[in-house]
Amino acid sequence: MLAKKTAKNQITLPKAIANAFPDTQYFDVSIQDNRIILVPVKMQPVSASLEDVREKMQRLGVREADVEEAIQWARGKKR
Fold first, then answer.
1. Residue 13 class from Cβ within 10 Å (0-12 exposed, 13-18 middle, 19+ buried)?
2. What pLDDT digit, counting tens, does each position of 30-44 carry?
């Protein structure tokens, strides 16, 4: 399928592709091997509880130490 980039840098997904994701409004966009990758994103309401976040982190295997390390890395500090 062919899609055209407009002067405003917009790309319209072909109908067959858009129809495959009827309930999706947002996509995470990245580039990999000179290809544009669109991954459907499920938005979570702000009202999601802290317990929901902790459960998801546990399912993903993210530990508290991992979060601390990521924060230190993002701030450019070394322990």
1. middle
2. 999 999 999 999 887
Our CA angle for 40, 42, 51, nearest 5°, is 145
User: Tell me, what's the pLDDT at 65?
Assistant: 92
Residues 6+ apart with CB under 8 A from 43: 25, 26
Please tell me the distance from the alpha carbon of residue 20 to that of residue 31, in angstroms, as a whole number.
21
CA atoms within 13 A on the CB side of 45: 3
- pTM passes above 0.90: no
Asked whether the beta carbons of 44 and 53 are under 8 A apart, the reply is: no
